Write a sequence for this structure.
């Protein structure tokens, strides 16, 4: 029933059945039996993969581990031994992945490396096929890569991601959606290693797959183009500016086609594009782009929105940089009013805007005193 509910996307119903499995297993087998550990492990994995609830996943995986390790008897039949090892894989993978979701790299890596060792033992059971194994070699390699990246073990992380790519290429082909995220993970690692050219190579692969699987005006193509634009923007190579601009424009056009000009992802991309234009000294282009966006947003969603506040803030910063203090004060005052309404007066964003306004006021007062 759990499997059927998962196939039908009935996540809450699947979760209920996993809970029932735990209760029934306890009645049938008792509190210390490895079958109860197996049910707890399945429930923990369900919370991890179906609900993305790391706290519950950790709690139930720890319960499963305690039951299994306290009364573990590996002198059972080969069939039961295999199932126990598969349960241990589920337990340690869930512990590793749940810690990963909570950015606990050390605990995550420790548990995921346990999975590696248990899988080796499983493979040593000749003639025994791991029918109940929930975790694929791809899942494990990707999770290990992420855990190593969190621990700043970047060479090791790159090796795991490369291994994941090889497995996907061999088992599923070189044009599958899963490869997009893995190439992007690889690119993050290479950026942390300051190997920007290698990062861009991986992101070009991801974008190529995205365009092969989806049309040019899709959200998926927009997402991979935006990541690629940002990579070119931070590469530090001035020759990359034209390419970065091309991918920013490609992403923005794709979002506008797929979602419309007023969607939050379209507007977020436009703000990212404008920030980059400011960074390379093209303030007026950025200002014009933001100004037209601000007018459009005021018409479509009213004045009090996060997007309008961010646009006004950036426009005000451009005016400050160009010495247009009166216009900057006007824009930032409006920005502060919206931020206070949207976030509350104690949020860091309105406080930062207020500090900038105070600085402008002090500068203006000082300039006035000097004139006198």
């Amino acid at each position: 029933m759990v499997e059927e509910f998962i196939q039908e996307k009935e996540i809450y119903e699947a979760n209920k059945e996993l809970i029932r499995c735990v209760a029934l297993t306890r009645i049938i087998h008792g509190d210390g039996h490895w079958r109860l550990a197996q049910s707890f492990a399945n429930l923990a994995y369900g919370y991890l993969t179906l609900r993305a609830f790391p706290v519950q996943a950790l709690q139930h995986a720890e319960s499963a581990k305690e039951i299994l390790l306290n009364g573990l008897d590996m002198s059972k039949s080969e069939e039961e031994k295999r199932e126990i090892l598969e349960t241990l894989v589920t337990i340690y993978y869930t512990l590793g992945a749940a810690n990963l979701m909570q950015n606990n790299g050390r605990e995550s890596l420790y548990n995921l490396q346990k999975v590696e060792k248990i899988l080796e033992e499983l493979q040593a059971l000749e003639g025994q096929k791991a029918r109940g194994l929930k975790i694929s070699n791809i899942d494990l390699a990707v999770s290990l890569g992420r855990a190593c990246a969190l621990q700043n073990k970047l060479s090791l992380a790159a090796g795991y991601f490369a291994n994941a790519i090889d497995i996907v290429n061999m088992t599923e082909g070189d044009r599958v959606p899963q490869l997009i995220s893995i190439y992007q993970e690889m690119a993050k690692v290479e950026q942390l290693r300051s190997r920007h050219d290698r990062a861009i190579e991986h992101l070009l692969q991801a974008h190529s797959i995205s365009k092969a699987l989806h049309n040019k005006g899709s959200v998926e193509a927009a997402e991979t183009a935006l990541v690629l634009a940002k990579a070119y923007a931070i590469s530090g190579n001035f020759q990359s500016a034209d390419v970065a601009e091309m991918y920013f424009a490609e992403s923005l056009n794709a979002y506008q086609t797929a979602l419309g000009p007023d969607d939050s992802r379209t507007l977020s991309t436009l703000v990212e594009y404008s920030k980059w234009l400011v960074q390379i000294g093209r303030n007026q282009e950025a200002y014009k782009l933001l100004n037209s966006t601000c007018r459009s947003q005021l018409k479509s969603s009213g004045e009090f929105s996060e997007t309008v506040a961010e646009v006004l803030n950036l426009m005000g910063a451009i005016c400050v940089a160009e010495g247009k203090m009166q216009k900057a004060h006007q824009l930032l005052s409006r920005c502060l009013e919206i931020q206070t309404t949207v976030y509350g007066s104690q949020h860091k964003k309105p406080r930062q805007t207020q500090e900038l306004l105070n600085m402008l006021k002090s500068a203006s007062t000082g300039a006035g005193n000097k004139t006198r």
User: Anything to note?
Assistant: The CA atoms of residues 287 and 315 lie 6 Å apart. The chain is about 80% helix and 0% strand. The chain has a mean pLDDT of 91.
